[in-house]
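User: Hey, quick favor. My workstation is busy. Could you predict this chain's structure for me?
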Amino acid sequence: MQINIGDYNKRKHSKYKALTVQQPWADKIMSGAKSIEVRSKNTNHRGQLIITSSKVPITNRSGITVCEVDLYDVKPIKDLTETELYKTGIPISKWGELNGYGWFLRTPKRLLPMEIKTYPAGIWNLAVYDELIRNEDFLREWKYERKYPTWHIAAVVIAFWAAVFAGIYLLL
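Assistant: No problem, here it is.
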């Protein structure tokens, strides 16, 4: 649960730097499909950053914590290479209209979807109960389901055919 920053208590809560991004871009950052976020302003912040999704547009993944990333570099848009422009996720036809800065993100880690109450522009402070944002059992299960979605099905099919062939062998 998000805590009012004025009620932050170092012993009970954890404080993170956060950035609100519209959907579907927040989920693309989480999946690694988007590794450069385009912003109008530069930032001196480097390091851990929690990506939250904005309330608009309204989807089933709006207004929640999405992932944790490492913000490791910032460059003016005019200095980005073509390869880096592709990593923004912005269509080629709109590259000429871009201005501002490219915020370089890496190592996205999925977080528990927690409802967010505030959506300040730019980087802001997010205070939460730490165990609510990182539930290792949930994250491990999610990673297993996404990484190996058909593994258990294959095991069942192999076991079935092994049993069929064993039955045929016993009949002979």
